[in-house]
Write the structure tokens for this entry.
Amino acid sequence: MRAVSESQIQHSCLQWFRLQYPALSPLLFAVPNGGKRDSRSGARMKYEGVISGVADLILLIPKKGFASLCIEMKTPKGEQSESQRKWQGAAERANNKYVVCRSLVEFMNEVNSYLR
């Protein structure tokens, strides 16, 4: 049996969110930081402001004293990189909630808890 990829988990989470919270769906978006790119594309993205380590998903809704919910998606065995841990610290110091989700169930629990 093939392991589920981070991309597949994230896609399931986005589908669920759009069905569960249709009015809020434009405010949950992916940050296209990951993936393999050629050097030219990577240089252009850096030039345009891409920052290493930014969370995979951002829910741009202030709740419970937080400015937003930043969600890093990982597989069950995935680990945060050093740049992701550094960005997490910066995001939390700026009053954002930051979570790591490894499954649809974790994502659902975090989002429901944040929004309710």
